[in-house]
Specification:
four-stranded antiparallel sheet; 10 helices; single chain; alpha+beta; two-stranded parallel sheet
Length: about 450
């Protein structure tokens, strides 16, 4: 089993192509609940797994909704520069009669109607800074989506390789079981004619039982790894599902120097971009806080009219006679705000310092992570080369021991020891191969290269 990785330290950057694709999904609202029918493919390759997860993953879709919320905040911030318009209407009815008992009960009506509007002409640049800030926060929301897509990409790739590892392990173990069955059958014939002792036959039968147990364990591991991938994809548990084995696994080409990989990571990974944007957000908070010390100039106007029954004039004539118009400017100058503005400014300065520290820390961590990934690749490739060499010679030794057993010149104990060495070499070879394949993809992923098999 490939060791579990600390996902929250890895793969927070998505290649630019995948990020663009993610933004297109957001722009078109192209996410929904996973389909419940069985029309989707039963056998998927890695790209199909990734495509499915990027579309239907609940966490991703939740982040996309958060991004839409940020976009609505931006729309609201832009609309704050526009004038408002309010309408009012009041209708009253008053009834009563005079002290004279002969006076009839009367009802009088009155009404007031009006329109008013205001617009901010100057507020120290607060609205413009707020719009710029909301726009940056929308970009940060996009980067959050990219980070989550990276985490899911790694989880799926790791689980996919674990399944491939288990499948290849099963192939080797089945071959071992088939060989053990043939050896037991041949030993049984030899025992029946008195060529070997019962102890030798029993040892081979015990080895066959152990090989079958190992095969069952390997098949259970494959089923468990398959279930893990389905859970990551959030597929129904009972849905038939399998994966495609790629034609090639090991990556070719020279290993990129660590300094070059670090520079590529600085240019592409979203945590760096997000940290830089957060510095910009902090500076805009400071500009908005300073705007609180400046005057605010607003323009306003209103239209109104009213009427009253019992008047000598008719309804529309009263509305015309009582029609009022007003327009004016209002200047508000902060003089003493009980240190609210001063405190906001100082807090904004502190946030700038904190955001710069966060950026520096992010760069340091990323540099260390890339260097560690480079070391992991170098070690994994060296282990793979050694495992290939070991497997080649142990396989040949096992073949010779098997041939010797067929002609009856091999000691059973020595043969079983050689067989155990072969099984260990097989497992080391498979583990080293998939570990090297995963680590080189991790390293390339830091550089912004999409994961492919």
């Amino acid at each position: 089993m490939i060791p579990l990785l600390r996902i929250h330290h890895f793969f927070r950057q998505m290649p630019k192509v995948m990020l663009t694709w993610a933004l297109l999904l957001v722009a078109h609202g192209s996410f929904a609940q996973a389909p419940a029918d069985s029309a989707s493919p039963v056998v998927w390759d890695l790209q199909q797994c990734l495509d499915y997860a990027m579309r239907y993953n609940i966490t991703l879709n939740s982040l996309r909704l958060s991004r839409q919320t940020s976009e609505q905040d931006l729309i609201l911030s832009r609309a704050a520069r526009l004038p408002n318009l309010n309408a009012t209407a009041t209708q009253n009815f008053t009834g009563g009669k005079s002290n004279s008992s002969n006076q009839a009960y009367t009802v009088n009506a009155s009404g007031n109607y009006g329109l008013n509007s205001s617009v901010t002409l100057y507020n120290g640049g607060y609205l413009n800074r707020d719009i710029e800030q909301k726009n940056i926060l929308t970009q940060v929301a996009d980067l959050n989506i990219a980070q989550q897509m990276n985490d899911i990409t790694l989880l799926i790739t790791q689980s996919y390789l674990n399944i491939l590892l288990a499948k290849e392990n099963i192939i080797y173990i089945r071959d071992i079981v088939a060989t053990s069955e043939a050896q037991v059958a041949r030993a049984q014939q030899q025992y029946d004619v008195g060529s070997i002792a019962l102890k030798d036959l029993a040892q081979l039968q015990a080895q066959l039982a152990n090989d079958k147990y190992t095969l069952i364990t390997a098949e259970n591991t494959r089923r468990q790894n398959m279930l893990t991938l389905k859970q990551i994809l959030q597929l129904p548990t009972g849905k038939p599902f399998d994966i495609v084995s790629p034609d090639t696994l090991m990556a070719t080409g020279l290993l990129t120097p660590v300094e070059e990989a670090q520079q590529e990571a600085f240019e592409t990974r979203p945590e760096i971009k997000s940290s830089n944007l957060n510095v910009d957000v902090a500076h805009l908070d400071l500009a908005k806080a300073r705007a609180g010390r400046l005057p605010v100039l607003t323009a306003g106007g209103s239209l109104s009219s009213n009427y009253l029954t019992g008047n000598d004039y008719a309804y529309f004539k009263q509305l015309d006679n009582n029609f009022y118009q007003q327009i004016g400017l209002t200047l508000s100058v902060p003089i003493f705000t009980r240190k609210v503005n001063k405190t906001n400014i100082e807090k904004a300065k502190i946030n700038i310092d904190q955001s710069n520290l966060n950026l520096q820390n992010t760069k340091t961590n990323l540099s260390q992570e890339v260097e560690q990934a480079y070391i992991n690749v170098v070690n994994a490739q060296a282990q793979y080369d050694a495992a290939v060499e070991q497997f080649k010679y142990v396989q040949e030794s096992y073949r010779i021991a098997n041939e010797q057993l067929k002609v009856g010149v091999a000691n059973i104990v020595e043969f079983l020891q050689q067989k155990n060495l072969y099984v260990q070499a097989v497992q080391a070879y498979i583990q080293a191969k998939y570990n090297a394949a995963l680590n080189i993809r991790i390293y390339d992923f830091y550089r912004g290269i999409p994961v492919k098999l």
